[in-house]
Every structure is written in C-alpha cells, then in structure tokens.
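[Q] Does anyone have a clean structure-token version of this?
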Amino acid sequence: MSGTRGCLTRDQVRSLDREAIERYCIPSLVLMENAGRACAELLARLGVAGRVLVVCGKGNNGGDGLVVARHLDSWGYEVLVAYCDEPEQFTAETACQFRMIQSAGIAVERWLPETAGGWDRYIRNIDWCVDAVLGTGTRGPPRSPYAELIRWMNQLPVRRLAVDLPSGLDADTGQAYDPTVVADVTCTFVAWKEGFANPEAAPYLGKIYTASIGVPRELLAAYGLGTAPRLCGA
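[A] Here you go.
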C-alpha cells in the first residue's frame, strides 16, 4: 500500500486518515491539532519578525491553518486570519476551529476579490503568509475566488509557508496549475506527497519539512512508511 519512494498518493492520504480515525480511534480534531501545531512550531523555529497572516479555506486544510493561528497567538505572536468562504460552508472540524479562533479574540477578516484592494491596512508588517487554502484532495485549476486569493498571496512581499502542500499543486502529479502558491517552505504531514518528486513542483514547494501528526507506527508500516520524525527537513 505504499506510494513511490515512501510517498503518499491523494487516495492514500484520505485512506490513512480514515483508518487513523476509525480503526485507531484518533479523533479528526486531534489529527488537525497535531498538524497545525507542527506548522506553528516550524514557523517559530524559522523565525517570525512581524505579523503572521494565516489564509484559510473551508476544508480541513483551512482548519489546520486555524490551529496554526491559535498556537502562534498563544505564544505571543501577532496573527491575522483571512478566509473567503461563508462559515456555513466550513467542514465540521474547521467550523469548530473557527469558533475557537473567534472566542480567543484573534483578528479575523473575510477576504473577497472585490475587497482585496482594501487590505493594505491589514497587511502592514506581515512577515509570513500561511497558505491553508486548498488541500491534497483538490483536483484541477483553482476556481474563483481561490484563484484570485492565490494570486493575491503570491504578490505579497512576504515569506510563505504552505500547509501540507501549496494551494494549486496537484498532490499526485506535482503539476502546478494556474495559479499555484509559490511557497518558501512547505510543512507536509506524515510523508511527502507523490507529486513532490516531480522536478517541476520544486519552485512551488520551497524547502520541504515533514511533520508527524500522531499516526500510529503500525499504521505507517501498513503504508510502507518508517517511523515518523517529529519534524524533519529535506
């Protein structure tokens, strides 16, 4: 059940998550918490010299990003969360994380293509932009409003960290659709995604770090993976 060279395909990622939840009784929110905290720890390790802008989609990748924001805020960093979907469209887990963010008093603003020009006042002193918009399940070119949002993120004069993979990059093939987030750093979970081996993906991935999210060693072995390091660079 292994992907090439210890990588995971899109379907394997979905299957591994499902087995961790159903067979090993690990709640989805726990996996999300572990993923988001790993990204936050990586940012802190890399150094944060200003505000962190966390841009979230409606799926569980967006939920990971909200966890990043919550932990950075608790450690004393200044954080701003941007989202573009109606909260009613969020997955159950992401909606739960969104409520936590609101309860914590973290700055949250909705981004829409027609209001992008008014964001200058929000993005002053931004050092990092966290891309938590589209996850491994996405296929094909990003549609509106994600396409406009990705282009907007790419033009910001900041460092970018992609959560699991850059939005717009195909997890299986490594094809970078128009547009795709150009990340300086990618924090991917459990293992590389199969498309990362495509040389054409490299300019979008930046430096890749692999993070454990608490998946049991027995389950990792079933997918042809070794023990998961807490966080390692590639």
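[Q] Thanks! Anything notable?
[A] The helical segments are 10-22, 28-46, 60-74, 92-103, 146-155, 202-205, 217-222.
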